[in-house]
Amino acid sequence: MMKNLQDIMSSLPPDRRAQVEARAEALIAEEMTLRDLRKAHDLTQKRMAELLGVGQESISRLEGRADMLLSTLRSYITAMGGSLDLVVRFPDRPPVSLSALFAAQNGDKETTRRTQ
């Protein structure tokens, strides 16, 4: 007899079950789309359009795009109250934040900095 996921999860010790659930949530969060992020913040396309000063159809198109300018993505995330960080990672070096890409928009003088 084949067990279903509910049976398997309920048979795990509580600490292991919590680990599995936390990892599942992390994996789901990594795969969120812009639409998912907007909905998670209880925002409609109409409200996002108002926040960004564009038409609702522009938000619909933006959420369906696989490729966009970083400045567009940054504006979208900022309108939701978030911030966008771009971090470069190489296996043999510490991570580096490319904050210089956004410095011109912010008027910041900060360029590239290492992250923790």
UniProtKB/TrEMBL annotation:
PROSITE patterns: HTH_CROC1. CDD domains: HTH_XRE. Transmembrane segments: none annotated. One of its GO terms (molecular function) is DNA binding. It comes from the Bacteria. Residues 34-87 form the HTH cro/C1-type domain. Pfam families: HTH_3 (PF01381). SUPFAM superfamilies: lambda repressor-like DNA-binding domains (SSF47413). InterPro entries: Cro/C1-type_HTH, Lambda_DNA-bd_dom_sf. This is Helix-turn-helix transcriptional regulator. The lineage of its organism: Bacteria, Pseudomonadati, Pseudomonadota, Gammaproteobacteria, Chromatiales.
